[in-house]
Specification:
Blueprint (H helix, E strand, L loop, with lengths): L1 H15 L3 H4 L5 H8 L3 H20 L1 H30 L3 H29 L4 H30 L1 H6 L2 H14 L20 H29 L5 H25 L7 H20 L5 H24 L5 H32 L4 H18 L4 H7 L6
């Protein structure tokens, strides 16, 4: 029981370390561009590249699991995140910053691809709710990164403020090393591996996760610069992103607690998608006068959609290994889709005065998500469990 409790703590700590390397960039982006010489497109790569690598790394989860086991791969991921953050302090120029983005993306990918399957195997009776809480820890890490980094930058400089996030990553790696299950407990059993690319339902789940996560990456990368362009300071825009992220965490925790009462996830999906759509509209029409409403609506929408996307995917299968294969595919392709959002916004910002067009495109995407969510009925999920290709 004591080891199980330590494992839970390690899972939450790992979740907390999966976003500061990305979220810390936005509030300091103008200063980073000034000192490093990165243009808008290059600056967008600091968020887009990790997400691309997160996708590619998730798709490689199967070989990684077979070579290192779930526990070893997760430990390696935490170490890579720490190294990426440290590199930003040691070499704060354009090329090393891009390299740190690639390294951070690989580390995040290893953890995200392997941890949900391990949760499913170790906590089978309550895996949906625990995956929801783990997702909330991810969003809480983004809040800490956005809020704390600008204040650290005042005394340490932006490069060592970014590098400071290596410390919690090292802590998470150390605790995981003590708490992680032995490799024999996590490697594949007799169940054949899943072939999700041959399953149309897996492509639908991947697209849903990717488009929804595009909203998250877009806000994470460009909301602070959007408000600094309106005259806000880096500290204020960072606090706004942190406040929005805290709303995400609260929404995620509440919805995760409600999951057992809603075997049909569609009412919850409708709520969060409507909130996301409304938040994007308010962000364009009254970004300053209704800024509290912006944070609340976007927080509910993004904070609920991220864990629900993972839970809906894991609902489709019972076997932990096959669930891990499906979630790796969903996250792998999904993060590749999501990486396009901040990059596209950077390109559009080069040719327009602000980010309004990016918010409008994301609002249209949220309508598409509503159409897709209507297909996630519990009855269909149960039917597809026996149809997944081996």
């Amino acid at each position: 029981m004591k080891r199980q409790g330590l494992l839970l703590i390690a899972i939450i700590l790992l979740g907390l370390n999966l976003r500061p390397a990305l979220a810390a960039i936005g509030p300091l982006l103008d200063r980073i561009q000034l000192d490093s010489g990165l243009d808008h497109v290059g600056a967008s790569l600091l968020t887009s590249l990790p997400v691309v690598i997160m996708g590619l790394g998730a798709l490689a989860a199967g070989p990684l699991r077979r070579r290192l086991g779930d526990s070893g791969g997760i430990f390696l991921g935490a170490v890579l995140i720490a190294l990426a953050c440290l590199l930003r302090g040691l070499l704060p120029s354009a090329t090393p910053l891009i390299a740190s983005a690639l390294l951070a993306g690989a580390g995040i990918a290893f953890v995200q691809a392997l941890l949900p399957g391990l949760i499913k195997s170790r906590f089978a009776a309550d895996s949906g709710r625990l995956i929801g809480f783990y997702s909330c820890a991810i969003m809480a890490g983004a809040a800490f990164g956005a809020a704390v980094t600008p204040w650290l930058a005042q005394s340490l400089g932006w490069s060592w403020a970014l590098a400071s996030w290596a410390l919690p990553a090292v802590l998470a790696a150390a605790i995981w090393r003590r708490a992680a299950p032995a490799r024999a407990a996590t490697i594949a059993m007799a169940t054949p591996p899943l072939a999700p690319w041959r399953w149309p339902r897996a492509w639908l789940l991947m697209s849903f996760f990717g488009i929804g996560t595009a909203g998250y990456t877009l806000v994470l990368a460009w909301l602070p610069p959007y408000y600094t362009a309106l005259g806000w300071s880096a500290q204020s825009s960072g606090l706004l992103l942190a406040a929005l992220t805290l709303c995400e965490v609260a929404a995620g925790l509440l919805l995760s607690s409600l999951l057992p009462r809603f075997p049909d996830r569609r009412p919850l999906l409708a709520l969060v998608l409507l909130s996301l759509f409304a938040g994007l509209l308010v962000l364009q029409l009254a970004p300053q006068t209704l800024v509290v409403l912006v944070a609340l609506l976007l927080g509910i929408g993004i904070g609920g959609l991220f864990p629900l996307s993972l839970v809906v995917a894991q609902d489709h299968l019972e076997d932990p290994q096959q669930t891990g294969d499906l979630l790796a595919f969903v996250q792998g392709g999904g993060y590749l889709i999501a990486a396009c959002a901040p990059l596209l916004a950077g390109v559009l910002r080069r040719y327009s005065t602000d980010l309004s067009l990016s918010w409008q495109l994301m609002a249209l995407a949220s309508v598409l998500l509503m159409v897709m969510a209507a297909r996630f009925s519990p009855g269909h999920e149960h039917r597809t469990r026996g149809m997944a290709p081996d």
